[in-house]
Amino acid sequence: MQPQLGLHPKMLRALAISIWLIMQPGHETMTSIDYVQGTDSLKVTCRMNFNDFLKDLQTIDDDRNLNKIFSKQPFPADLINQYFNSKVFIHINKKLLIGKLLTVNLTDSEIILNLFYRTDRKPKSITIRNMILTGWYSDQTNLTIIRINNFEKGITLTPELNEETFIVR
To answer: What residues does each domain of the chain span?
Structure first.
């Protein structure tokens, strides 16, 4: 009898993607979009290299010293909301959603943004467009995991293919 690892397939998939991200050279982000069951909301988490984040943030705000601003916490929520909503477009049932920053975590060289979105209680379709860093790097990869009810899909968005739509009934 072999011992069981006790890892759920979804946990194993997330672990594999995380390890892959760490091992890959180049420019990658990881975004998860999770429908909060029984509510009208999505929780979105985005991980990326902090220096790449500052570089991309300058596309919407090049007048301030961003290194100085982000050296102190709390992070400016209005600036992060503006950035994320101008780079990541989430449509549920063809309606554009607007995200609101919940938390920011900064570790060594990575920033993790957690956002909240109000949506329909019965999502039928989702369209994701992710433009993070696509104007800077031709090898940019924006990995995205979508989990809505029984629908789960991992996708890779790039500068050439930056949008996908799914039926999630």
So the answer is: 29-167
